[in-house]
Amino acid sequence: MDKICILLTCPMSEYLQHELAKRFTLIKSWQIKSHNHFLNQYSHSIKAIVANGVHGADSTLIESLPCLQIISSHSSGLDKIDLVKCKERGIRVTSVPDTLTHEVADLAVLLILSVVRRICTADLYVRNGLWKQGDFELTTKVSGKRVGIIGLGRIGSAIAKRLEAFDCPISYYSRSEKPNSRYKYYPNVIELASNCEILVIACSLTKQTYHMINREVIDALGPKGYVINIGRGAVIDERELVLALVERRLAGAGLDVFEHEPDVPVELVGLDNVVLSPHVGTCTVETRKAMADLVVANLVAYFTNEPLLTPVV
Ligand code: NAP
To answer: Gene Ontology cellular component (predicted)?
Structure first.
């Protein structure tokens, strides 16, 4: 029997590709030279897509595949998949929640500690032989700082739990107050920003959260405030963030995600009050394997008529 055809939207791990190839025929979109040739040859045979948080499935791609039945996302952020179109067409969508929560939460704490304690600059201070000329400057403490979290979902809650160990009072903003939460809820972002010193973005990117962190929010946080973003770049108006950092209207930022990845504003590269990482929230061997296993398990479940493990649509 012919194997089912699956489209991969970008190169993913060797492990994932190997596991998929054991069960399915893989069409690798980055190896397709001609779009017309691709459509003629494969458009009626592709039944599934494996997408990730950067290379998703927009309406054009979905429309070009009339036999598409399922999209298995290798990311918990679904902003690059046209979920409305999927619902219209009855295409199932799965993601990989829970497999990555701890790694991303760990990275958020790492960015907080690094930027507030200026650890990258301190590292360079030692490497560049500057220590002999005098002690490194004083920084400020993380323990006890008031932390505001936007999006108290899986990752947001895991960040809050970790920061409780640092005696940080935690507050949050999301679309609704969580009835069982012990953290203080603010009904809007400005109030949250006005009442915290470290603002952590852990929400999904949607039409509503796009550029939610604008000049007003940044100014409410103020010149002693820090922004940490492990959610999605476009939740922040990046131009306003850069201006605020350059003008020192913000104390600093720790950023794993950017508005136009892999492009990073050149001004950020020259600033010593930012810590930058290249969207590595989930980049550990263990987590990437767990994510890959879930991507495959959802596809296998679908094509053997078993219930999906982590359905979104
Ligand atoms: P989740 O459990 O679904 O949480 C999403 C959170 O977003 C919820 O708390 C939700 O709160 C909040 N939210 C949604 N719309 C909102 C709005 N309009 N205003 C305020 N809050 C809103 O997802 P998760 O697993 O924690 O992941 C969160 C995000 O992290 C993902 O969507 C993804 O973009 C990002 N992520 C990044 C990395 C990385 O490598 N840096 C890795 C994985 C995920 P309410 O429902 O209460 O409003």
So the answer is: cytosol
Query: What is the pLDDT at residue 36?
Result: 83
Check if 287 has its Cβ closer than 6 Å to any atom of ligand 1: no
Mean pLDDT over all residues of the chain? 97
Distance of CA 293 to the CA centre of its chain: 19
Domain identity same for 108 and 224: yes
Is 310 near ligand 1, meaning CB less than 6 Å away?
no
Pair 228, 109 in one domain: yes
CATH code: domain of residue 80: 3.40.50.720
**Catalytic residue set:** 232, 261, 279
Number of domains in the chain: 2
Q: Left, alpha or beta for 277 (phi > 0: left; psi -120 to 50: alpha)?
A: beta
What is the mean pLDDT of the segment spanning 246-256?
98
Percentage of residues in the chain having pLDDT higher than 90: 96
Give the pLDDT of residue 35: 81
| Same-domain check for residues 134 and 53 | no
Question: What are phi and psi for residue 258, nearest 5 degrees?
Answer: -135, 160
